[in-house]
Amino acid sequence: MTHPILIIGAGQAGVQTAEALRAGGFEGPITLLGDEPHGPYHRPPLSKAWLAGEMEAVQLVMRAPEMLARKNIELRTDCQVTAIDRAAKSVTLRDGSTLPYSGLVLATGSTPRTLPLPGGNAQGVLALRSRDDASAIAERMAVCIERQLPLVVIGGGFIGLEVAATARKKGLTVTVLEAAPRLLGRVLAPMLSDWYAELHRSHGVQLVLGAQIAEIITDHEDQATGVRMADGTLYPAGLVVVGIGVNANDELARAAGLTCERGIVVDACGRTSDPSIVAAGDCTARRLSDGSLLRLESVQNATEQGKSAAAALLGQERPFTATPWFWSDQYDKKLQMAGLSMGAEHWAVRGDTASGSFTVYHYKDEQLLAADSINASKDHLQARKLLDAGVSPTPQQAGDAGFDLNSLLAK
Prior knowledge:
By secondary structure, this protein is an alpha/beta fold. The protein folds into 3 domains: 5-111 and 246-313, FAD/NAD(P)-binding domain, CATH 3.50.50.60; 125-242, FAD/NAD(P)-binding domain; 332-409, 2-Layer Sandwich (Enolase-like, domain 1), CATH 3.30.390.30. Helices cover 26% and strands 28% of the residues. The chain has 11 helices and 26 strands. It has helices spanning 12-23, 57-60, 65-70, 131-147, 158-169, 190-202, 251-255, 299-313, 377-389, 395-399, 406-409; strands at 5-8, 30-33, 73-76, 81-85, 90-93, 98-100, 103-106, 110-112, 125-127, 151-154, 174-178, 206-209, 213-218, 224-229, 234-236, 239-242, 246-248, 264-266, 277-279, 284-287, 293-294, 325-330, 333-339, 346-352, 357-364, 367-374. The strands form 7 sheets. It has a 5-stranded parallel sheet. A 5-stranded parallel sheet has the order 9-16-10-11-12, with helices on one face. Strands 22-23-26-25-24 form a 5-stranded antiparallel sheet. A hairpin with a 2-residue loop joins β25 (357-364) and β26 (367-374). α1 runs parallel beside α8. The longest helix has 17 residues, at 131-147.
């Protein structure tokens, strides 16, 4: 009997790889190994609709076990892999048993960074990554609402701000503490950071930028009761949500001797330093043509890398070359991002920022790098087409709402 292809991780990347293997004609056994008790589920709603109580459990399901079974994909939940033996082509499970593989997919995701401060591990100091995390936060939010206790969010990135927006919708008092001088400073243009700051302030969120946190204050039961700053200021809290980024889950790969650097290093096809092992999703760092590494944390990246990794195991070349895109929902505003804005030197704005529907185009010299659209889905889709085609409107054209950017694609 042919040894199966094992997929470690039953999230977006793992499921996509399994389904792409079947679509590509692979007829051998496929086993998905998930370390959570739940089957595959959608993560993006966890900080939004799911946390707000606006979704039923069935809506969170990505693939029901019976749907996977119809494709002859075996799903094992609550199944933790503890080691990879590359020489024997096998993995060891938590119970000590081993499973052989003909090909191995690492789709192990990422883990939220912890707060390296006194009280950082106290009760009521929570991070959001999994369904169980979201449930724990929702339960504690309910207690805070009942007792009129405030929420403190540490980190002004996407997860932190989405949680803050959801909490305000539920009526909680919210303070966001961000160490950097502006929100979303690594990914947004300064004017868009300012726009988001005003959006959250207009909804009653207290923002503290340049925040220097000293410790989490706890009571005699080790329950968080507040956050003390370096200057002595105390922000009371019945719940502290920490959103200060994630680390790639590359421990298994490192222990097995695979090349890792801020994640499992892969090429555009998802291949690792072992020809029998591929990787996809948040656990990876993709080596670019100039030798630099790119880490992307998005549904699109997990999906496309999963397809590429499946093709690689089937001996095919399907590099992931599409324009990266991402989205975030906060209040009634949808941000849609296309491209990578690192290195941008100047920006052009299309539309009126006061209207709440506009697009910011990122440029280096005259080269369009990325576009961030607020409640402007048409602009977003158009920007993806431009970036995919390698077409750069001038900043003047991009900022002129009367200029038809589609005309540049027709040339």
